[in-house]
Write a structure and sequence with these properties.
The structure holds two protein chains of two kinds. Chain A is of the alpha/beta class. Chain A contains 14 helices and eight strands. Chain B is an alpha/beta fold. Chain B has a six-stranded parallel sheet with strand order 1-10-7-4-2-3, with helices on both faces. A four-stranded mixed sheet of chain B has the order 8-5-6-9. In chain B, a hairpin with a 4-residue loop joins β5 and β6. The chains are: A alpha/beta, B alpha/beta.
Amino acid sequence: MTETPTRGPRVGLFATCLMNVFRPNVGFSAVKLLEDAGCTVEVPANQTCCGQPGYNSGDYDAARALARQVIEAFEHYDYIVGPSGSCMATIRHDYPVLFQNDDVWRPRAQALSEKSWELLSFLADVLHAAPADARYDGTVTYHDSCSGLRGLGIKGQPRALLGEVDGLKLKEMEDSEVCCGFGGTFCVKYPEISEKMVEDKVRNILASGADTLVGGDLGCLMNIAGRLKRIHAPVKVFHTAEVLAGLADGPGLAGAAKEAD
Amino acid sequence: MEIRSKEFKDRAVFAIHDASLQQALGKARGGFVGKRAQQAAELPEFEQLREEAKNTKNHILDHLDHYLERYEAAVTAAGGHVHWARDAEEARKIILDICQRVDAKTVTKGKSMVSEEIGLNEALIDNGMEVIETDLGEYIIQLAHEPPSHIIAPAVHKTKDQVSDLFEAAHGGPRKTEVPDLVNEARMVLRDKYFRADVGITGGNFLVAETGSSIIVTNEGNGDLTQTLAKVHIVTSGIERVVPTLDDATLFLRLLARSATGQETETYTTISTGPRRADDLDGPEEYHVVLVDNGRSKMLAGRFKDMLRCIRCGACMNHCPVYGAVGGHAYGWVYPGPMGSVLTPLIKGLDNAYDLPNACTLNGRCASVCPVKIPLPDLLRELRHMQHQQDLTPVMQKRALKVWRYVATRPKLYHALEQVGARVLSAIARNGSIRRLPLASGWTDVRDLPAPAGRTFLELWQGKRGQK
């Protein structure tokens, strides 16, 4: 797809479903950050979903079908990197489990698992990269998405990277590690419970005094941004990658900024 | 206790709109979480202890028959009796028989979740006995005719005002409003019951195989009065609660208090071994242990074995944002929260508790604080898998999954549909988002749907890089 001569590691970008449809800017931010750090980035066209919706709904067969597709599309890259702790935790932790009784696919799942990385932790832990001359004028609070935090140990990396951004002030909110109530299909199956949870999250965001919320998973961010918009709260929402890449210049998810009054 | 887990959704919504409940839950949440975190931070080897506890429990479960036999022999040698109950009915019958044999009129009870599990109180009351819960929280909910809403803080859903009302109605006033006064009032009422009790029933936090002892921990000392002052002491416990030695028990005690209430140790830790000996100053004349299986040996043999490591500390529910939102009663049976969402379907049937494994975001906070490292989210997912295999999944969801699988395994079709979706959603959006979407009301009833930009990333990427 790309004709760029190979230099640095060859990275296959996992274009998550939500990013692909709702926030292409996150994909371009990821590409920019990876290329700035010396990677050659490709986006295989034969990818779709990681299979997590099937897995978490108990349909393991469907999850395996999707997992095989991802393995085939990405196993020839040095790394598979995606801007989501949730999707990447599925590839890292769940693929080997899904194929634990399959002698053909288990080693392939294991091999992909070992070179799978969530974007921010890849930048920080593997590439030891710092964002190049990014600037963001605002007070930012960071939501720890559950899969990234507990599944992949992502906590310090995004904060350290955000700390490198000129003009950006990081302000912690209360309970940043508590689930926002998204939970995949949970948020539409149990909307009232989800509402209570996102309400608590939004209260903590507002109490922090930050004008911007960032995080590493679009599911959570869409849930929170949608709620902020619903209650007309003037807080902008961006994926961490957008801020780091210097591409957080628009209105943010749900255009919450426009609603600001 | 009749299972009402099928009503989870309605009960959850009801709970969310119950202002007193929300007030009580908010208060409890802050306390438990903060105190546990502090205790964990102050004990450098805390994480190491969790790992040790997990391994010790796994060892016990691998040799459960051995340790149970050792335990039974030790209890018998100390002059006590061990009774084996296959299910709730057998357990009730064993206990009822003992109570009737000694012609019990008054039965005092220390906190025991197993007794809730087997529906013991109803059985004793139906047979004409007066049953008094002596744990303050249990006493409160007994007065309110409610089941516990938390495994270690049964009345956590009650506000102080509600307790004042209950006590005034039960004890005949004057109405007390300060916590120490309320506690004193309960203490005075309960004191008399301890002395009148014919049988005292407690749970067993741990059963020690080497000595035949049962260990209980309380913060009120009520368990001690229950088990030493009555003529007969009956311990009800699950078969999985046995530990090899007293040394092992201390490992779990260190974790239990810190994980449960955020204390270094509970106020009272009491070890009972057999009935009163000739030179003992006090103690019961008879000592019985009722070991309840009720689905546990089936779990031991299958993929839910990890669940049997549970030491009933309640940390999972204290840290569960769903429990924090809806409280324990929404879950509809004895055990609420994450551990209850695993246990209830296993004990009472998957079809009787469909929502419990599903009403979870799999955020993993429960597992991250579990003192015996039970992979609760994995077990909940495994239950969803069983529901899927047994065709218990709602028809619409099943169909949606089939369509999703069909489309998602065809990248070109998937991308084409994503492109259509991105365009349509972008076209109907106003000011960056969509306020109402008929087929996605589960989303838009609660929050706006952020609007896509119009073109998908893959489309734009191919446009940009394809031309290079």
